């Protein structure tokens, strides 16, 4: 049996189902002719050697035919051992490690095994004049075949029935041998190489490997391809598909559940149908000496692994156990250290997958490239979605495919939704809530920022985010710690929210559709169910609100009215003829680009506010008096060109960032800034009136100098204030070549780094690029 990793993953395409090895003078015109006829009737392709001239040694053409056949049928008859051709053929069959079915035709199996009787005599005659090495290889090959269970004509009264039995056995065996269809899968070879290196097939150790990735990424497909390629190296194999869906505990207790699971498992591994076991030690007892290949597909519970593969000692040397799951923590908890993370295919691979299902070819036909590219993007490069969407468009003409686009853009395909929904439904209720928050509000946001906003939600956000990451429902970027959620999962989350109230969007938890949001705000139909609103206002040209648009949404915590475009073509006209009287006091995030009022509503109490972002606002002042701002950590009023003053911030004791760049009317900072012990970033770039004010008075400089809150603060010149953050000193009011911009004080630069390098590094840490 071949056992090297390189051999295990060779691509092999079977040309023949069966290779028959026989002595022509005994069976060609009789038994063999009937057998071959029955093979043809059953659609079994058989190698025929009519055109091959027989000699003492078999040629390369015959060796190739043996290797390209799935099964070998060896017909051992009276004169089989007298033929050097047959014996050499048998040696090649043994070398090729093929599945062999021996047929003992008018010979005693024990005579073949022990090389005695008439069969033994003919063998001895064939050995005359041959080398000891050749004679030994012939003996080993005959004994090897004779020890395999097969059919004997001595046990049959009716030869026709024996032939029927042989053909049925071969047919069943062919059905159980994995095909090589997976060889044509896009990108499959790269996956196989990487998993091959993890599995280290030449090792005699028992190894367990996990295949981890989100629903629809192709874990089952990849695992099946790997199973097909490795199966020929193992005497015993099993692929248990959809363990999560097929093996529920139902009414059984934990012990009973494991027994039933083990019965199913063992029945398939050792081919013992309807097996009954009564002890959980049976798997170890039966398999500890066997080299097995086990694939457990779509596992979602530890008890499933406990029942089937609790310890590596349950299996014989060289065994391999492969587990696919959406839950990385499950693999870790079970001590599986070899984990293959299945990533998304590239754009070109995704396009190829889609075209295969949509057009039956690897590339889009002329005139369909743009359409194929858009649908591939809509599928989010998820293999399941590429397959489903491609298949749904198969057979349509170009116009029909284009007409399907609007629905594909606005809603999930039902088959894709059903697969993704299983992952969501399996979450704890708190984790479901976090999933919906991210899908509707916080995808592509910094993970620490999201944790801050959800800190008091009672959702156990730190643990919940980790659960979502382990289950492949979100991905946290390592470079900038951003939470990323796949576009189809975002769409799923938003559809789940829509299901909360199809006809009355004001009764949903989150509002993200522009028309729904406009209707709710314009008609005052928001309710206490609404927790968050997220709207790109640059997509709305004109909208009308009234003073009580947020009146019914007393539980609103997250309000994001942001702009993704600064183009004059996308300017939004917001009409508030009576102003704005009310904003909910439970707001934790208030992000309103181009806020249209000159101040906040007088009744607004921002006691829970964590982030206040009112860039490009019409504000002249925020509010009167002292507000409870203990929760506030970030305030950004950048480019609010009419802002004249900052209110008393003495209660904002946890504020870390205050961005005031391009507030060209801002004249002074409040004395309360000296109490901001946690302030790390103060950005006042291009606050031109502040600069003029500083030239007239040192009051502001004194305020900043008295504050120990911004790291080191010192006066350098009357017109310049420097503030250092960490190892970098940001200088706020230096006039450089008629352009006002922050510069770096050279005193703080590392000797090992150039100014350009320090500038680049500073930009990564300071929010000065407003």
From TrEMBL:
| Family annotation (Pfam families) | LRR_3, NB-ARC, TIR, WHD_ROQ1
For this protein, the record's PANTHER family field holds:
DISEASE RESISTANCE PROTEIN (TIR-NBS-LRR CLASS) FAMILY, LEUCINE-RICH REPEAT-CONTAINING PROTEIN
Presence of the UniProt keyword NAD in the record: yes
Catalytic reaction annotation: NAD(+) + H2O = ADP-D-ribose + nicotinamide + H(+)
Note the PROSITE patterns from the entry.
TIR (PS50104)
**What is the name of the protein in this document?**
ADP-ribosyl cyclase/cyclic ADP-ribose hydrolase
Would I find Transmembrane helix among this entry's keywords?
no
Q: Molecular function (GO) terms listed? A: ADP binding; NAD+ nucleosidase activity, cyclic ADP-ribose generating
By its UniProt entry, which InterPro entries does this protein fall under? AAA+_ATPase, Apaf_helical, Disease_R_plants, Leu-rich_rpt_3, LRR_dom_sf, NB-ARC, P-loop_NTPase, TIR_dom
- Keywords per UniProt: Hydrolase, Leucine-rich repeat, NAD, Plant defense, Repeat
Q: Tell me its EC number(s), please.
A: 3.2.2.6
GO biological process annotations for this chain's record? defense response; signal transduction
Provenance organism:
Arabis nemorensis
Q: What class of enzyme is it?
A: hydrolase
Q: Which residues form the TIR domain?
A: 14-174
